[in-house]
Amino acid sequence: MSTSTLTKEDAPQPVEEPVLRKPSTRKRLVPYWLLLPGIIWLVVFFALPLVYQASTSVQTGSLEQGFEVTWHFQTYWDAFQEYWPQLIRSLLYAGTATLLCLLLGYPLAYLIAFKAGRWRNLLLVLVIAPFFTSFLIRTLAWKTILADDSVVVEALNALHFLDVTGWLGWTEGDRVLATPMAVVCGLTYNFLPFMILPLYTSLERIDGRLHEAAQDLYASPATTFRKVTFPLSMPGVVSGTLLTFIPASGDYVNAELLGSTDTKMIGNVIQSQFLRVLDYPTASALSFILMAIVLIMVTVYIRRAGTEDLV
Amino acid sequence: MRWIRRNLVVIAGLLTLAYMILPNLVVMAFSFNKPKGRFNYSWQEFSLDAWKDPCGVADMCESLSLSLQLAAWATVGAVVLGTMIAFALVRYRFRARGAINSLIFLPMAMPEVVMAASLLTLFLNMGIELGFWTVLIAHIMFCLSFVVTAVKARVMSMDPRLEEAARDLYAGPTQTFLRVTLPIAAPGIAAGALLAFALSFDDFIITNFNAGSTVTFPMFVWGSAQRGTPVQINVIGTAMFVLAVLVVVAGQIITNRRKKTATA
Question: Which parts form a coiled-coil structure per UniProt (chain B) (predicted)?
Answer without folding.
Answer: none
